[in-house]
Specification:
Elements (H helix, E strand, L loop, with lengths): L12 E7 L26 E3 L3 E8 L9 E9 L2 E6 L2 E2 L2 E2 L2 H10 L8 E8 L5 E16 L12 E7 L3 E4 L2
Length: 170
C-alpha cells in the first residue's frame, strides 16, 4: 500500500529580510547599507499573512439572466505579520525593526525597502518550502504588552506591506 506524502509542519521556519537592490524605483540603495544587508536575525516565533487574493470582476451581460460572467481582476497581497521575543544585549534592547519604521516616518529618503523570504524546514532541517516577497515596507510595529502580574516574554510585532508574494520552486 502506498504511503501518503508527509504533511508540511508549521513550527520550523525562519524569516530573512535583505535590503532590496533598489530602494526606490531607479535609485540606488541608501548609503551605508549595501544591497542584501540583513535586518533582524530571522528568529520570529510567528508568521502570518502568506496570502494572495484576486479581485474577480463581475460583468452583467445583457440578456443573460441566469448568471454573471466573471473575469480576472487585480491581485492583492496581504500584509505579513511577524512576531518575536524582544532581544537585548549589553543592557540595551535591539532597535533594528523600530529604527526602520522610524526612519521612513521621519522622511529619510530613499526609503529602505526589504525583500524577504519565509523558509519552512522539515524535521531534518531541510528547506522544503520558500515564500518570497518583494519591496517590503514597515506598515506597523507594535511593542510588547507589559503586565507585572505575568512572567511572559516581551513580544514585538512587525507588519510588512509588500509588492509581491510567491511560493518559490526549490
Amino acid at each position: 500500500m502506498d504511503q501518503a506524502p508527509p504533511l508540511l509542519r508549521a513550527f520550523r521556519f525562519r524569516v530573512q529580510l535583505r535590503l532590496a537592490p533598489q530602494a526606490v524605483s531607479g535609485a540606488p540603495a541608501p548609503a551605508g547599507a549595501p544591497a542584501g544587508a540583513a535586518l533582524g536575525d530571522g528568529g520570529f516565533q510567528e508568521c502570518s499573512g502568506l496570502e494572495v487574493d484576486m479581485d474577480v470582476q463581475e460583468y452583467l451581460e445583457g440578456g443573460r439572466n441566469d448568471g454573471v460572467i466573471r473575469r480576472v481582476g487585480r491581485g492583492k497581497y496581504s500584509n505579513l505579520v511577524l512576531r518575536r521575543g524582544m532581544f537585548y544585549g549589553d543592557g540595551r534592547v535591539n532597535r533594528e525593526l523600530w529604527t526602520w519604521l522610524q526612519s521612513v516616518i521621519s522622511g529619510e529618503r530613499p526609503v529602505r525597502r526589504y525583500n524577504g523570504s519565509v523558509e519552512v524546514m522539515s524535521v531534518r532541517d531541510e528547506v522544503v518550502a520558500v515564500w518570497t516577497f518583494e519591496r517590503g515596507l514597515p506598515a506597523k510595529i507594535k511593542g510588547p504588552e507589559l503586565n507585572a502580574k505575568t512572567g511572559e516574554i516581551a513580544i514585538e510585532e512587525l507588519t510588512i506591506a509588500h509588492e509581491g508574494l510567491r511560493l518559490a520552486s526549490l
